Amino acid sequence: MESRKLESGVFQQFKDLIYAESGIVLTEEKRALLLNRIGKRLRALGISTPEEYLHFIAQDSTRNELVNLLNAISTNVTYFYREKAHFEFLEEIFRRWKEERRPKVRVWCAAASTGQEPYTINITAAENLDLSFTDYKLLATDICTEVLETAHRGIYSQQVMEPVPKNIRDRYFERIAVGGEECYRVVESLRKLAIFRVLNLAKFPYPLKGGHDIIFCRNVMIYFDRNLRKKIVDE
């Protein structure tokens, strides 16, 4: 399937739908990427053209295919200790709260992806807070159901684990075999600190209870336009 087959009018309809449902802005440079991503869904459904796929989504009262579309176009670039300076700053905050004997800490990771960022946050908490005293929980959300399944399992290949220091790896991960490949699984005590949920940042109001002391959202805000960023911050 070539990019010329995704005509301008059809591309605009996809752009409008994706923006309305997720807040993700697709520029003209993303046309070929979109065609490649939806091509997989067309083949899975036995649909011939992008136009037919749009019609299929519109007629799907379950909205399941809309979820599949959003899963397909979501960008899930992530790795452990991404934006190292953020976690160095987080260490300082947690150490101060430990000294202050803060009784409760709530953190929200607004774009959990496959789990590396929320688990890095939890490792930082375990290293710098007294979790035997502080009631600590992390809410990890994402619009993509597929990546949340990976995050919930907490199993990663050796390549994915490369940014994790050996001493941290030894303390917070256990080696397991998956399909004959040696992998690492986040230890249960750390997994229990995270609650993974589907949440669409473009849909207001958010179904969240209580406030959060810290919110990680920078790595998802870059995909939104200024108007939506303001709405999210105001929310």
Task: Summarize the structure in short.
This protein is α/β, with parallel strands linked by helices and 235 residues long.
Please give the structural blueprint.
Layout: H1 8-22, H2 31-45, H3 50-59, H4 64-73, H5 84-99, E1 104-109, H6 116-128, E2 135-142, H7 145-153, E3 155-157, H8 166-172, E4 173-178, E5 181-186, H9 188-191, E6 194-198, E7 214-216, H10 218-221, H11 226-234
Parallel strand pairs: 1-2, 1-7, 2-6
Antiparallel strand pairs: 3-5, 4-5
Account of the 3D structure:
The structure is a single chain. The chain has 235 residues and is of the alpha/beta class. The protein has two domains: 8-73, Chemotaxis Receptor Methyltransferase Cher, domain 1 (Orthogonal Bundle); 84-234, Vaccinia Virus protein VP39 (Rossmann fold, 3-Layer(aba) Sandwich), CATH 3.40.50.150. Helices cover 48% and strands 16% of the residues. It contains eleven helices and seven strands. It has a four-stranded parallel β-sheet, covered by helices on one side. It starts with 7 loop residues before the first helix and ends with a helix.
